[in-house]
TrEMBL record:
InterPro entries: GIY-YIG_endonuc (IPR000305), GIY-YIG_endonuc_sf (IPR035901), UPF0213_domain (IPR050190)
Xref: CDD domains: GIY-YIG_unchar_3 (cd10448)
Lineage: Bacteria, Candidatus Curtissiibacteriota
Signal peptide: none
Family: Belongs to the UPF0213 family.
GIY-YIG domain segment(s): 1-81
PANTHER family: BSL5627 PROTEIN, UPF0213 PROTEIN YHBQ
Protein name (Swiss-Prot/TrEMBL): GIY-YIG domain-containing protein
Length: 99
């Protein structure tokens, strides 16, 4: 049975691109949809953090969780720098993966 890939992701708010949320999932489209629909009352729904601005793919859940913790431990400035290195215009990558 093939292993599902794990995704590490970074979400940003739409207004300022200064509020970030880091997470891990094995179904990126579904997980981002849940954040956008505010399925659960949480940090992301409170601060409207629902724009997918960065993601990485891992073959192992342990690798994904390790990277998630590494990103979460960083400052907002480090998250901003990480995002700008890959997605300088803060494009919503969700729109690309759902086409």
């Amino acid at each position: 049975m093939p292993t599902l890939r794990k995704w590490g992701f970074l979400l940003s708010d739409y207004k300022t691109n200064r509020v970030f949320y880091t997470g891990v999932t094995n179904n990126l489209v579904k997980r981002i949809w849940q954040h956008r629909q505010k399925v659960v009352s949480s940090f992301t729904s409170k601060y409207n953090v629902e724009k997918l601005v960065y993601c990485e793919i891992f073959d192992s859940p342990l690798e994904a969780i390790k990277r998630e913790k590494q990103i979460k431990a960083g400052s907002r400035g480090k998250k901003l720098k990480l995002n700008i290195s890959i997605n300088p215009h803060f494009e919503d990558l969700y729109l690309r993966i759902t086409k």
